[in-house]
Amino acid sequence: MQKLEVQLGERSYPIFIGESLLDRPECLLPYIRGRQVLLVSNETVAPLYAERVRKVLADGGLTVAEAILPDGEAYKDWQHLNLIFDALLAARFSRKATLVALGGGVVGDMTGFAAACYQRGVDFIQIPTTLLAQVDSSVGGKTGINHPLGKNMIGAFMQPRVVLADTTVLRSLPDREYSAGLAEVIKYGLIRDLPFLEWLERHMDGLMARDPALLAEAILRSCRNKAEVVAADELEQNDLRALLNLGHTFGHAIETAMGYGSWLHGEAVATGMLMAADLSWRENWISHQDVARIRTILVRSGLPVVPPPVSPDEFLRHMAVDKKNIDGRLRLVLLRQLGRAVVTDEADRGRLVATLMAGEHLGQA
Amino acid sequence: MQKLEVQLGERSYPIFIGESLLDRPECLLPYIRGRQVLLVSNETVAPLYAERVRKVLADGGLTVAEAILPDGEAYKDWQHLNLIFDALLAARFSRKATLVALGGGVVGDMTGFAAACYQRGVDFIQIPTTLLAQVDSSVGGKTGINHPLGKNMIGAFMQPRVVLADTTVLRSLPDREYSAGLAEVIKYGLIRDLPFLEWLERHMDGLMARDPALLAEAILRSCRNKAEVVAADELEQNDLRALLNLGHTFGHAIETAMGYGSWLHGEAVATGMLMAADLSWRENWISHQDVARIRTILVRSGLPVVPPPVSPDEFLRHMAVDKKNIDGRLRLVLLRQLGRAVVTDEADRGRLVATLMAGEHLGQA
Ligand SMILES: NC(=O)c1ccc[n+]([C@@H]2O[C@H](COP(=O)([O-])OP(=O)(O)OC[C@H]3O[C@@H](n4cnc5c(N)ncnc54)[C@H](O)[C@@H]3O)[C@@H](O)[C@H]2O)c1
Ligand SMILES: NC(=O)c1ccc[n+]([C@@H]2O[C@H](COP(=O)([O-])OP(=O)(O)OC[C@H]3O[C@@H](n4cnc5c(N)ncnc54)[C@H](O)[C@@H]3O)[C@@H](O)[C@H]2O)c1
Ligand SMILES: [Zn+2]
Ligand SMILES: [Zn+2]
């Protein structure tokens, strides 16, 4: 078992990473302050893993209630958040209750936000069960729900008391979801950690086989990278944290153009990262070989690298409304060199359009 | 114009108190960081005062959008909170937007909570237009909405950037609402500020005439008292802040027994404070004359002092579910002496029942 401490002053918390952590009381019980626990999960994950967590909690002498949400991003809304409040109030839970999120990023975001709001704030623990949630949502404290007019528009910054990243539960994850998580893992290598990128290149076959030891290492290094960025910019008040959005502005446009759900977020980010790499090459910042390396590792991870047939105009329209853009200028995260991303609003319009028109060529060496 | 600084480290903010502050750009504009402002009010207050605020903002070169909510505690729910998010997103407001609450405690609580959640937190300004909101909700940072199973169950701690307590707008306040606000004013004298109680006794006639200078003084001293309590216990983590609940456990039972809305909160608190005083007298902590003084000032303020005909059993049932009670013990705020409240869970059951049975006698000297 590995342990990473996310340093945030009095809101610091540990992330435990390893096999079968679900069954280990010592990872969970010391972080629960009261006697009341609400276990929040969804209809897919709960039948697989909820009973094990419930048992650890009940054996610890705690009162456990459950809220099981329907599965899907479509239910990440107020109406379903309210199911969590209903369960808390039906159980008459007090301000000393703890909420435990067992599931992917959707369950984690909703549970964290419910914890931030219930009686103006109760404790919250994350047990992320997707690779994406383990390497991304378990660090940073972002929680929230969607609004019909925008994703993640309503939420709170809320740090968990502890995160358990159990590598064993990833075995049941569908292949596409697993690959989508790898996109965010690769992202950390690209933006700030060349040695990690090299490590991933060496171990991608083992990672694709979901080898637990390699997974633990990949999760640890991912979370450490994100934690370092977040610690320097907890409330997202300067540019630093924006580096985590490599590939996301392009990816966001893909997701929007194709309709949410047809491309997974991580898939869109993967293709978006290759587009960012292509533009960085056109800006003469990275080499053609660098672009090829990025393409190769994405393909080896089972990720798409060819954008859907969307016209440059439509692409630009969807990119411009991305909330990461302030004051109407198109700010992009590009690669100053392999392993070092920068935020810039000075990318040349013509080169950007060339990238948007590259289409299938992006998939070719 | 008076100014009180609420000391909360980097979340400190000023409260301006005085006549016609609504029209004074210097109280508002310096506290707005971006260019986008959403003015939130309700259908009663907006026709009276929104245009003046809108003009100050627009003259300051800001983009102003509006969200006008229906009037009433019944609409302090998610569905109507969502109207604020709808307005923000329809106007495409960014994380640099500021929300301005113009109204009583309902508008203030909802707007503050919306500000806490919109894109995980934007700025927020309070222009409270009821006496209760000026002396109570403008300090403390509590925001939120109701859930069908409990009042104020969903919310956040969120400090405003500035509060404008305009004494002139109180002229249009209905008499019952005005008196209800005075109950909370008197409360500060009772729990920790005997000189203020004496001042109120001297000036109650002028206050009932809504004399602006007296009002400014009463609001200032009320807010200062609350600010001192809150500064020592911002997130409500020890007993200190509980003193602010003098009369509230009894009052809560009255409100619940009678159905929300038939007694105003301040009215129930007034009668509840007299019940707390009666019990404090039975505990031999304050004198019969002290109780009479409290009764007199409440009556002069137009407040009820006789509880409704509710049986002791029903009273106790409603008091026990009050969320201020931890671990099943009935914790009450009582008067150790006039001007000094304490939290205790040791009140004698027999004496408590005697207070609950006193009924009309409470109204008599
Ligand atoms: N808070 C943050 O910092 C942050 C970061 C990134 C993404 N997110 C959010 O996370 C969400 C995406 O998260 P996600 O990719 O985990 O999606 P998800 O939560 O929808 O999970 C993907 C699918 O996998 C299923 N699943 C989860 N664990 C499983 C397991 N162990 N075995 C089998 N099936 C399993 C889920 O039920 C779901 O059907 C989005 O809403 C996004 O906004 C948040
Ligand atoms: N956040 C806090 O710390 C805090 C403290 C106390 C109460 N509250 C909350 O505040 C709410 C009660 O506040 P309230 O008593 O102000 O009630 P309110 O907001 O319902 O206002 C009372 C009535 O007066 C009207 N009104 C407001 N200003 C007016 C004016 N200047 N002229 C004419 N009419 C006017 C309103 O439209 C309403 O009909 C409750 O929801 C309570 O939970 C919050
Ligand atoms: Zn992402
Ligand atoms: Zn009150």
UniProtKB/TrEMBL annotation, chains A, B:
Cofactor(s) the protein needs:
Co(2+); Zn(2+); NAD(+)
Its UniProt pathway annotation is: Metabolic intermediate biosynthesis; chorismate biosynthesis; chorismate from D-erythrose 4-phosphate and phosphoenolpyruvate: step 2/7
Q: Which InterPro entries match?
A: Dehydroquinate_synthase, DHQ_synth_AroB, DHQ_synth_fam, DHQS/DOIS_N, DHQS_C
Q: So which domain of life are we looking at?
A: Bacteria
The protein's UniProt keywords, in alphabetical order, are: Amino-acid biosynthesis, Aromatic amino acid biosynthesis, Cobalt, Cytoplasm, Lyase, Metal-binding, NAD, Nucleotide-binding, Zinc
* Cofactor comment text: Binds 1 divalent metal cation per subunit. Can use either Co(2+) or Zn(2+).
Q: What is its main location?
A: cytoplasm
EC number(s) of the enzyme? 4.2.3.4
The record's CDD domains line, in alphabetical order, gives:
DHQS (cd08195)
Which residues make up the binding site for Zn(2+)? 184, 248, 265
Q: 3-dehydroquinate synthase C-terminal domain: which residues?
A: 181-325
What does this gene product do? Catalyzes the conversion of 3-deoxy-D-arabino-heptulosonate 7-phosphate (DAHP) to dehydroquinate (DHQ).
Q: Which family does it belong to?
A: Belongs to the sugar phosphate cyclases superfamily. Dehydroquinate synthase family.
Name this protein carries in UniProt:
3-dehydroquinate synthase
